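Anyone have tokens for Protein KTI12 homolog? Sequence:
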Amino acid sequence: MPLIIVTGHPASGKSTIVDRLAQKFSESQKECQIIRDDAYGSFSRKNYEFANKEKDLRSWIRSEVQQNLTKNKVVICDGLNYIKGYRYELFLAAKMSKTTYCVIQVTPSSDTCHWLNEQKPEGERYSREIIDQLLMRYEKPDTKFRWEQPLFEVKIGKAEKALPTEIDDDMSIDLEYPAPRFANIFDDEIVEWICNGTQLTENQSTQTVPLAPTNFLHELDRCTQDVVTVLLNAQRTAVRGQNLTIPGASEGSNQVKFLKLRTLPELNRLRHQFVNMSKKDPMSDKEKIINGFVDFLNCNLR
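Reply: yep, here.
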């Protein structure tokens, strides 16, 4: 049931790294299920040019991950997974399964991505324009967030050989990072963590409440609106980096860090997202609603 999320730039060698990692798990007598974006029925590299097609692709990947997490195998999600909020959704699926979890980041330079793209068969290549667009959209993992931990960053370059285990002071040495077939993928560390690491546990965001209170939707709408109003008023006199206290939340979960001025439409967009998510997993009282919304805002206000 363990979940490994692979995230990175387009044409960065992610699938090669996943294949090497799957082989390592096989040697450790662990069965792997690899979920790849190109296994989607109507997949095309051009899907990333259209928001609706890309959304359908992400929904399919999320569904496949959730279904396979119920089986006794290691699930590796091999795709761009470049949206921070989407990685959070996959993290929640792992929490509900109470399993181990990690993230592998593969983000070589733009030049290396274009070079690797040229190595692909012609029918599997991205266009240069799509690569450049996806590089601009990419939201880099940040270990400050619990759903990006533990994070293993694989360095990719063009060298057709592995880096030496010991690098001396000889400045003439070739320090180009290795190509995907030769890169250090931290396979021993990843296998050790996935097999023996700390399992995720459910919390308020993933536990299912059998029956929602009859006034739940009213409380949900009112509480989230009150939080938005508090933030709009507090930010008028706040300084950057200050923690804004939210009334009604429990101690330790009652502050939103002020990073920049937020508009009402921006806060309402996040409020609607939280409301829609909460309808699927009702919370039992007002304090839990406010705690959950504060946590959601801290994760998404960057």
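The beta strands are 3-8, 32-36, 74-78, 101-106, 151-153, 243-245, 255-257.
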